[in-house]
Design goal:
Helix content: 10-25%
CATH topology of the domain at 580-686: Immunoglobulin-like
Shape: elongated
Strand order of the largest sheet: 11-12-13-14-15-16-17-18
CATH superfamily of the domain at 580-686: Golgi alpha-mannosidase II
Number of strands: 26
Length: about 700
Amino acid sequence: MIDVRDGTPAPLGANRTRKGVNFSVYSHDATGVEILLFDDVDDREASEIIRLDPSRHRTFHYWHAEICGISPGQVYGYRADGMRKSELGYRFDREKLLLDPYARAVAAPKAYDRQAARGAGSTVATGIRSVVADRRGFDWAGDRPLQRPFSRTIIYEMHLRGLTRHPSSGVDPELAGSYLGLIEKIPYLKDLGITAVELLPTFAFDAQDAPSDRVNYWGYSPISFFAPHPGYASSSDPLAPIREFRQMVKALHDAELEVILDVVYNHTAEGDENGPTMGLRGLDNRVYYILQKDHPSRYADFTGTGNTLNTNRSVVRRLILDSLRYWVQEMHVDGFRFDLASILTRDEDGRPLSNPPILWEIETDPVLAGTKLIAEAWDAGGLYQVGSFLGDRWCEWNGAFRDDIRRFLRGDEGMVRKVASRILASPDIYAHEEREPEQSINFVTCHDGFTLNDLVSYSRKYNFLNGEDNHDGMDENFSWNHGAEGPVDNPEIEARRSRQIKNFLTLTLLSMGTPMLLMGDEMRRTQQGNNNAYCQDNEISWMNWDLLDEHRDLHRFVQQLCTLRLHPENYNTPPGKTLNEVLSMAEWKWHGVRVGEPDWSENSHSLALSIRFSPKRLGHLMLNAWSESLKFELPPPHRQWMRVIDTSLASPEDIQLEGRPIRDGTYVLSEHSLALLIASTDPAAFQV
């Protein structure tokens, strides 16, 4: 038997009390709010409907009630009534079941139908529901975020389901594609040498937000900013996602691996004006979204998804801050990568702000003080803020690193000066900010685009299976197929592709900045030329673990690069030093094929760099993106150089951390390859 009491406006969401659960939700313009209780996730009707009395259950714009006699696991939803004038931006529909913006758990009934939420009529039977969670019921056993410095970080971007979903994963079939399935692959991740996993969206998302007969695989279609995605749980228990997510984080931390979440605070799954009403739209459309100023029936679309969150509105700012704090305090994550982060700089009319409140609040929040913050510093509305993203803590995905490294290694002209800058953490982009070198997140591949195998195997995209006539995805990838399109049996082409892959990996992992690798690049995972596999929840996107045996040599190469990167004598950036200070302190010099004579001309395709890693350790990097071998002069000390890397050589000679002596004063570097030599006055320095 339930008993409905007044309740309180704080805290927001559904929170356990001594006698039941307190519900609180914000709605500025609603004239009435109902709480619907369900006995089971799949029930088509509510067992109880509690209509809130504004005289008792409304404080300012907060609707609240304490319902005694219910407990964690209770399934619920809201309905909100109010003005229904889309031409003014009001989209209340009292027939639509609405998600709680602060729900810690959500669940979709078997009858869930995204299309039903788009049209007229009730969605009580078919709508996604919220679930009351007990936020205290997990023993962390002393676990806490690791707070590893960026200077000691190697990021591995991965899809949680895709890592273990393939039959070849060797994971218990009941756990494949789940939070717990990832735990079984921790030894592999640790052995690879990475220090942090960056998970594609794990906030609950609408898998039906995709073209017909396909599914939303990537997860950039959020329906909640607090609930872990239920589709990644191994159990149908509505509270399993919270429990299993925490188990996963704790297990990763036990292995000294950080957890970075790819978070989407720029839009929701409700889409454009023709999209479904699932939550924010039905609670307070004018508050939560940026509407077109002259046509409030339409949404401003700076995200390419149909709508844009009004992130600098006070209520939405609090929602985002509360979400971030929750994932750090109660779920123990170590950092966040903000999808289309430039959205967070736009005001309520969509105009860029010079000092956006939400960014400063995130940066200065004490709960987030030790948390990694990474911005994708652009949006679909034309903002591109790489090198100018606000704040003193934010690191940025360096799109220029990706494009310039691709173009240089492909052999494009006019790229030598640019690649020189990318190797040194892009001072042309970041030096003016007086920030640390690790501000630049260096990557050549990520989920959005070709895999590394496909980057060297296809000269154009093949996205036909996405159902959009190959119009989706980027057209210009700066890729090169090395003589034939797609898979080949030609050993010469395969050798060139393998060499180029090692070039990409070496520059990513050994350049100044923070390196990021894409899941499966270490074993040449392919998406068959698809550079936008967001709707491919199948073998196109999954990690095929059979490739590991086929490409053990490349896997070893990546392992050794990670070891070299994290060796205390290498890339030992002094703590607290800016990029400018590091470069001014470092002993480094550019060369061409002749010592001291770099060729910066438009038609140059080669470069060499000498740099002192530490008082006892010198490095000499040579790059040849030309179609013929080149002979490089070596700077003194001629007879102390040891070859550590030469990407033109077969495994295991391609990388030997103990070094191979170079007796001559020159080094012949094959076409489209690179080499790293190290000289040391301390023999123990080679004991990596």
